[in-house]
Write a structure and sequence with these properties.
The chain has one domain. Helix content is 8%, strand content 49%. The protein has one helix and nine strands, in the order βββββββββα. The strands form two sheets. A five-stranded antiparallel sheet has the order 1-8-7-6-5, with no helix packed on it. It has a four-stranded antiparallel sheet with strand order 4-3-2-9. A hairpin with a 2-residue loop joins strand 3 and strand 4. It is globular.
């Protein structure tokens, strides 16, 4: 699992075609997921009493979204109040902050 900090309006790129952004509507934070049409996007129901294996002082503040069959994205809040993504994807799937992905593609 990878945890990446993002501000409102910033994104991460997962694999070669998935873009996950944090946006704010009114006072609520929302995940916006752009993915190829063949990938199903769905909410994962959280079981009561279950928790992700997270570092101390990190709590889930949003739903977990399943992208395809094996990529999960969850919005977290940490002690400092920063917004973070928990991304659970197979080892071979690359994850980049959008600004680094753009720099990488220019090289």
């Amino acid at each position: 699992m990878l945890i990446v900090g993002r501000e409102i309006g910033q994104s991460v790129i997962i694999g070669e075609g998935i873009k996950v952004s944090v946006l704010q509507y009114d006072s609520k934070l929302r995940l916006v997921i752009d993915a190829p049409k063949h990938l199903r996007i769905s909410k994962v129901k959280q079981k009561e009493g279950s928790s992700l294996n997270l570092k101390k002082r990190a709590t889930i503040i949003g739903n977990t979204m399943l992208i395809g069959d094996d990529i999960k994205v969850t919005i977290l809040r940490t002690e400092s109040g920063l917004l973070r993504f928990a991304i659970d994807a197979p080892k071979e799937v690359s994850v980049f902050r959008e600004e680094l992905y753009k720099t990488r593609s220019l090289i």
